[in-house]
Each structure stands twice: as structure tokens, then as C-alpha cells.
Specification:
Structural class: alpha/beta
Mean pLDDT: 96
Bound molecules: flavin-adenine dinucleotide
Oligomer: single chain
Number of strands: 25
Number of helices: 13
CATH superfamily of the largest domain: FAD/NAD(P)-binding domain
Radius of gyration: 22 Å
CATH architecture of the largest domain: 3-Layer(bba) Sandwich
């Protein structure tokens, strides 16, 4: 086994991992090692990136871990997670939204000091470089370029939705990251330059790639940490050349919502009973590891377009102007306690036959249901057991909100120009009207927004379910940190990519501070 020494080893080169590595290299002279299981195609300007990953107009289908949720009825639902440098920012829809100030304030109120919106605001300016100076809830001065989709860029399905929502009385929002007014509709900001999906590696890693202090191991899967009392001494990895031992003073896990808890559990930190069942020596019985898994649950409605709308989409596609998703409506159910609790948006899905399906998605942005992720065994090559348990809350609140979202989407279709763009509602279909039938539809087709979070929840040591403290340090350890979607205690009412990048930057700063204190 080969061994190497670093100040900080970062495990997982995704949205947060690249942001953390970039931050450490740009602000310190620490020797940083970034370990990524997928390939690294190098700086964007060298031209080795596959076009499929660059083209932001359509979501790529490759470079995926191949995970799936296994449901009680035996069915499996794919859970996309990218396996490539940049992580999910390399294959996502590029919607660049921040959570509402109240969402982050709730984290702080629950004991995560330093995570209130006012604390995070300066970091937002260090993460994002938004092209619109008047977008006051976006960042200005950071590394990730974003801009709003202009009306003249909207493809026919997006434009029809936007105009119908306005006709239905929803105000046009200046930006989807600001809280006021809570309900409304707008094209979203996107981390897209020309047509290029500007992933986390381009934004944060490329500017520091030439520094000798940075080492990137791609094609290298982290297995487990070696722990001596409360400190990790090394990370054991598997790469093309065999097993690798990386020795460091600090370790930051950024392997994402499934990868980070899996590495912790393989290292002996996790629910004691579960680890014992798998024959893993329990170093720290931490019951919260892998728990609190949640996402925005949602359903898809499908529509048959009018012949004219179908022709327009084909024409948009020929001109290279077709995008799957560009507009979001924020709505409020009757159960909403704080501004809005729904995202409704139009989406174009390409079928295997190359046809475009006209869809509308509805997502519940304030989910209460919680699932979990568990290990299948101690081999890092095994996919984890993912139990999302969407719509499982005991009061059936999540499904009630979702059904109201479907009714809202259907209401929008009665306004022009949607009314004449749609020939027929295919799913759930106009005959599915009663609340009970809509609930059956929602339960049988529910999926999620691809924003899973929470499996290494941040919280004070007094909370037995908390896995990391508000600096990102794993409770009970001295030098193991987590900095990705897994530490989010409660999902914000927004897409999660920007928040994950911010987490990477903020925890990197905490690690620098901890190293300074160590001397
Ligand atoms: C299909 C899809 C569409 C989305 N659309 C949007 C959107 O439009 N806007 C938005 O804001 N959010 C979107 N999201 C969500 C957003 O992209 C994620 O929340 C965010 O990227 C998560 O960042 P992360 O750093 O926590 O994890 P990731 O970005 O998943 O990074 C984890 C990295 O760790 C690596 N890794 C995992 N295990 C190991 C291991 N054992 N060893 C080494 N490396 C490992 C992975 O390969 C990956 O590169 C979308 C997500 C998906 C999947």
C-alpha cells in the first residue's frame, strides 16, 4: 500500500468538495488532497470534457452511481447521483437558487450557531457571481457565474407556463431567491455560461489547479478512515493502482448525502446495532448517522400538446434553443405557515423514442417525512440501501400539500396560452378529480426533486441525532469534518446546489481556524 501526507484530505470532488478545495488553496498554503471516485476531465479551457456534461440544455444520463431506492412493494426508483469531478453540479439542471432567509434562520434557532442568514450573507457573495446587480438576494463577487434566463430565451412550454401563471394572478418575481412576495413566478437564475453547465470544478477548482499545494486523485474511491481514539490518522482508498493510504492532519468528507454517511459507517461511526450486524467494529455509536434523509417530494403531470405546440418544440430543438426547465412558480397550500410551500414548473422530458413529453412538476418544499440510508456491507463497491420514505409523515401533511400543488398546476392550465398549448391532460387525467383519487395518484407516482439532504445532521452535542457540530466537525472526533448536503438539518425551500457550495466554503474556513488553534 502506498502512503502520502497532506494537511487536509477532502473526500469527494462534488459541489461542496470542489468549493472546499478551492477555498483552502486560494486562502492558505496548506497541502490539500482532493479524492474523487469519478473521472476528472481537467480545466474547462483544455477541452477534454465530454459535450454531454457541458451542454446545460439537457440533463446527462452518464457518470452516475446507479443508486436506487428499494420500496416496500419491491419496486426500485432511480436516485441519480453524479460520479465525476464537480459531482451533481456536473449533471444537474443548473437552477441557481438560495434558500429563504427564514430557512437558514431556522437552522440557527435550532442550535446551529453561525448559520443564520445574516451570518451566511457575506459567504453568498463569495460563492456566486450573479450577472444582475439588482438581484439583491444573489451573490456578487464570488466564483460561480449565474444569470437569469431572459424571456426571449424561453422555449414554448416554459413561456406558455409563465404567461398563464401571470394571467392567473401570480406576480412576476424579480428573483426566486428573495422572500417577497412569497408567491409568484419567474425564470430562474442558472449557473450557465453560453450553453455550458458551469459546474463546481470550473468555478472553484480551475483557478487553483496550477498550485503545487493541490493534489487531485480521480478514479479513487474512499473506503474508510483509520481512527485512533478521537482522531483519524489516515484515509484508505481504492484507486486504479490498488490501495492507497492518505495521511493528513484534517479530513473533510464531501462525498455527498449517501457517500459521507457510508464512509463514516465503514469507519465505525454510526448506529451501533447496524454496524455490529455488518461485522464493523463500533468506534462511536452515533445513532443519527444515515438518518434524517429527506428531499422535496413531488409528482409529475403529463400533457399531450397541441400540434402547433409540438411543432414549436421541434423547431426550438432544431435551433438549439430548447431547454428542459427554465421557469418556477412558488405557490402556497392551505397548510402553508410561512410564505410558500410549493414549487410548480413546466418540464420537457425526452423519451427513449426521441419524443418530447410536456410535463409539469409539483414539489412540496417543506417536507416532514424522513427516511434513512444504511450500508449493505462493508465493501465500498456496494450501493447503500436507500429508504427515502417520501410521504410517510404520520399526519399525511406532505401528501396533502402535494395534492394541492397538483390542483394548482391544473388550475394554471385553464388560462391562456397554456389552455391552447395543451390538447389533453394525460396524467393523472381529467377524471382524477376527487382528493382521494389524487392522493392515490400522488402516492403511486411520488418521486423527489433530486435534492436529498440530512444524513449527517448538523446540531448541538445535546441532540443525540446530531452527527456534526455547527463547524462541521463530527461529534466525538477531533479532526473529521463533513461539508456537504448531508449536514443540512432541514432542507431549504430551494434547489440545493448553491447551499452545498456555501457549506463547502464555510466548513473549509472552520478547518483552517481549527488548524490555527492547533498551532
Ligand atoms: C439530476 C439532478 C438535478 C439537480 N438539479 C439541481 C438544480 O437545478 N439546482 C440545484 O440547486 N440543485 C440541483 N440538484 C441538487 C444538487 O446538485 C445537489 O444538492 C448538490 O450537487 C449536492 O452536492 P454535494 O457536494 O453534497 O454532493 P455531490 O455533488 O453529489 O458530490 C459528492 C461527490 O463525492 C464523490 N464520492 C462519493 N462517494 C465517494 C467515495 N467513497 N470516494 C470518493 N468520492 C466519492 C461523488 O462521485 C461526487 O463527485 C440536482 C441534483 C441532481 C442529481
Amino acid at each position: 500500500m502506498e502512503g502520502y501526507e497532506f494537511d487536509v484530505v477532502i473526500v469527494g470532488g462534488g459541489s461542496a468538495g470542489c468549493a472546499a478545495a478551492g477555498r483552502l488553496c486560494a486562502t492558505t498554503d496548506l497541502r490539500v488532497c482532493l479524492v474523487e471516485a469519478g473521472p476528472d476531465y481537467g480545466p474547462v479551457n483544455e477541452g477534454y470534457w465530454p459535450n454531454e456534461l457541458l451542454d446545460s440544455r439537457v440533463r446527462p444520463g452518464t457518470h452516475d452511481w446507479g443508486y436506487a431506492e428499494e420500496r416496500d412493494d419491491g419496486s426500485t426508483i432511480p436516485e441519480p447521483r453524479a460520479k465525476v469531478i464537480g459531482g451533481c453540479s456536473t449533471h444537474n439542471q443548473c437552477a441557481a437558487l438560495w434558500g429563504m432567509p427564514a430557512d437558514y434562520d431556522a437552522w440557527a434557532a435550532a442550535g446551529d450557531y453561525g448559520w443564520a442568514y445574516a451570518d451566511l450573507r457575506p459567504l453568498i457573495d463569495q460563492v456566486e457571481q450573479c450577472a444582475e446587480p439588482d438581484a439583491t438576494h444573489h451573490g456578487h463577487g464570488g466564483s460561480l457565474p449565474t444569470r437569469i434566463y431572459r424571456d426571449d430565451e424561453l422555449s414554448v412550454w416554459q413561456r406558455a407556463f409563465l404567461q398563464s401563471a401571470e394571467a392567473a394572478g401570480f406576480p412576476r418575481l424579480l428573483e426566486l431567491s428573495g422572500p417577497d412576495p412569497p408567491q409568484g413566478v419567474a425564470p430562474f437564475h442558472a449557473n450557465v455560461l453560453d450553453h455550458t453547465r458551469w459546474n463546481s470544478a470550473f468555478a472553484f477548482l480551475d483557478p487553483v489547479r496550477d498550485l503545487p499545494a493541490l493534489t487531485v486523485y480521480d478514479g479513487t474511491t474512499a473506503d474508510r478512515l483509520l481512527l485512533d481514539q478521537e482522531n483519524a490518522t489516515a484515509l484508505i482508498c481504492r484507486g486504479g493502482a490498488g490501495e492507497l493510504e492518505l495521511v493528513a492532519r484534517m479530513f473533510i468528507l464531501t462525498a455527498g448525502v449517501y457517500g459521507s454517511p457510508a464512509i463514516l459507517m465503514r469507519s465505525g461511526i454510526g448506529p451501533g446495532e447496524h454496524l455490529t450486524e455488518l461485522g464493523i467494529f463500533v468506534v462511536t455509536d452515533s445513532p443519527g448517522v444515515g438518518g434524517n434523509l429527506h428531499d422535496h417530494p413531488g409528482v409529475a403531470m403529463r400533457f399531450g400538446p397541441s400540434p402547433a405546440a409540438r411543432r414549436s418544440v421541434t423547431e426550438d430543438y432544431r435551433r438549439g434553443a430548447l431547454r428542459q426547465s427554465q421557469v418556477i412558480l412558488r405557490g402556497s397550500s392551505s397548510l402553508c405557515a410561512n410564505g410558500f410551500d410549493l414549487h410548480v414548473f413546466p418540464y420537457l422530458h425526452e423519451t427513449e423514442a426521441g419524443e418530447w413529453e410536456f410535463m409539469m412538476y409539483t414539489f412540496n418544499m417543506t417536507p416532514r417525512s424522513r427516511g434513512q440510508v444504511r450500508l449493505r456491507g462493508d465493501d465500498p463497491a456496494l450501493a447503500p440501501v436507500i429508504e427515502r420514505r417520501l410521504l410517510s409523515d404520520s399526519e399525511d401533511r406532505d401528501i396533502a400539500v402535494l395534492v394541492e400543488g397538483v390542483l394548482l398546476a391544473r388550475h394554471l392550465t385553464t388560462f391562456e396560452p397554456l389552455a391552447s398549448t395543451i390538447a389533453v391532460e394525460v396524467d393523472p387525467g381529467p377524471r382524477v378529480k376527487r382528493a382521494a383519487d389524487l392522493q392515490i395518484f400522488a402516492r403511486s407516482t411520488v418521486d423527489a426533486y433530486a435534492h436529498p439532504v440530512g444524513t449527517c445532521m448538523m446540531g448541538p452535542a445535546t441532540d443525540p441525532q446530531a452527527v456534526v457540530d455547527p463547524t462541521g466537525r463530527v461529534h466525538g472526533t477531533g479532526n473529521v469534518y463533513i461539508a456537504d448536503a448531508s449536514i443540512i438539518p432541514q432542507i431549504p425551500r430551494a434547489n440545493t446546489n448553491l447551499t452545498c457550495m456555501l457549506i463547502g466554503v464555510k466548513v473549509a474556513d472552520a478547518v483552517v481556524q481549527a488548524l490555527r488553534e492547533l498551532g
